[in-house]
Amino acid sequence: MNTANPSSSRKTQRPLPNLAGCDCSQDPFAALPPELRPQVAPPMRGLRQVVCPGCGLVYWTNRATDLCADCERRGIKAPAAEDRTENSS
């Protein structure tokens, strides 16, 4: 009985060669000036890094509140903007 895994016999897979005359591997926007080319969306679009005012957890969020989910679940209130300015003086 042959117990060897057939996929293990293939050490590496060769990449497919570029076809001569095929435009699919070239940049379709190469003729456009850089300002007119489509922009690539950043991978973390809309996220910001915040520190939870309740527990100090540093995390990424796209929500309007800075409270983490655990503190929000426990009912901890975020300090209001005017409270922060009064305490700093």
Q: Please work out how many helical segments DSSP would assign.
A: 2
Quote the distance from N terminus to C terminus: 81 Å
For the largest sheet, list the strands in their spatial order. 1-2
Taking the sheet with the most strands, its summary is: 2 strands, antiparallel
Q: Stretches where pLDDT falls below 50 for ≥5 residues? A: none
Structural class designation: alpha+beta
Count of individual beta strands: 2
Global Rg? 27 Å
Tell me the series of helices and strands, N- to C-terminal. EEHH
**Share in helix:** 10-25%
Strand content: 5-15%
How would you describe the overall organization of this protein?
A two-stranded antiparallel sheet has the order 1-2. The longest helix is centred in the last third of the chain and has 8 residues, at 81-88. The N and C termini lie far apart (81 Å). The mean pLDDT is 76. The chain has 89 residues and is of the alpha+beta class. The chain contains 2 helices and 2 strands; from the N terminus they run E-E-H-H. Helix content is 16%, strand content 9%.
Please outline what is shown here.
The chain is built from two helices and two strands, in the order E-E-H-H. The protein has helices at 69-74, 81-88, and strands at 48-51, 58-61.
Summarize the helices and strands and which ones pair or pack.
Elements: E1 48-51, E2 58-61, H1 69-74, H2 81-88
Antiparallel strand pairs: 1-2
Could you list some keywords that capture this structure?
89 residues; alpha+beta; two-stranded antiparallel ribbon; 2 helices; elongated
